[in-house]
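Hey team,

Filing this mostly as a record. A colleague (T.K.) asked me to run one chain through the structure pipeline before their review meeting, and I want the input and output archived in the tracker in case anyone asks later how it was produced. No errors, nothing strange. Just documentation.

Input sequence:
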Amino acid sequence: MVDGEFCHVHAEGDCSLHAALPLPLAAAAVSEGWAEPHFFVHTGRAPATIVMLYAPRDEYEGEVVLGLVRASYEFALLPEPTP
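Output structure:
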C-alpha cells in the first residue's frame, strides 16, 4: 500500500476495501470468495498480498471483513524482512 497504509475503504464507491494481508490469508480470502487479487497484482505492480475485499452486505459479512481488516493491521505491524 502507500506510506504505511495497510487498508482503505472506497467510501465514495461500492464500499469495497483494499488491504494487505499475509500471503496465506490473502490466498484463503480469495479462495473462500471474500476477496480478489488487486488488479495491480496481475500486472506485477503489487505483491500477491494486496487484495480487494468485497463490501459486506450484512452483519455476519461485516464481522468477517472486520476480522480481515484486523489481520491487515497486524500484518502491517510485522517487521519488514531483511534481504
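Quick notes for T.K.: The first helix runs from residue 23 to 31. The first strand starts at residue 7 and ends at 9.
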